[in-house]
Amino acid sequence: MELQPISPDAVVCAQTLGKLCAELGPESVNEFISQFRSLWPTRIGRLNKAIADNDRAAGEDSALSLKSAATMVGAHDLATLAVQLQAAFRTDNQALQGSLVGRIEGAGNAILAELTKPGFPEHALDMYRQSA
């Protein structure tokens, strides 16, 4: 499996988040971001526990959950890493699992730094409206 690099210029797709803002409103998106942030340590903990326990089912489930959340928030590179991790659990590639979790943790921290900037959802909504 070829690992794809994380693009530092595309940590979060403002268009995706802007569309979500247009559909749900900035307050709902701010709440989603807050939940994403508060669940982040738990998500990483579940992935590390699945690796430590060699629990392929729990690892696949955790990776799929992360992929869904990352996709909703516009973190497409993180979602791609989660798909790669899900495949690594499915094929029991333990060496790749550990490497991917490390990359996921770094990418997630960069994403959280971007998402938690004051006014980010509103900025994303403005960008989305300008492009529509």
What do you see in this structure?
The chain is mainly α. It has helices at residues 14-24, 26-52, 56-73, 76-90, 94-115, 120-131. The model is unreliable at 1-9 (pLDDT under 50).
Return the structural class.
Answer: mainly alpha
Amino-to-carboxy terminus distance: 37 Å
Number of strands: 0
Rg (C-alpha, Å): 15 Å
- How much of the sequence is in beta strands? under 5%
Q: Keywords for this structure?
A:
single chain; 132 residues; mainly alpha; 0% strand
In summary, what is this structure?
With 132 residues, the protein is mainly α.
Secondary structure blueprint with pairings:
Elements: H1 14-24, H2 26-52, H3 56-73, H4 76-90, H5 94-115, H6 120-131
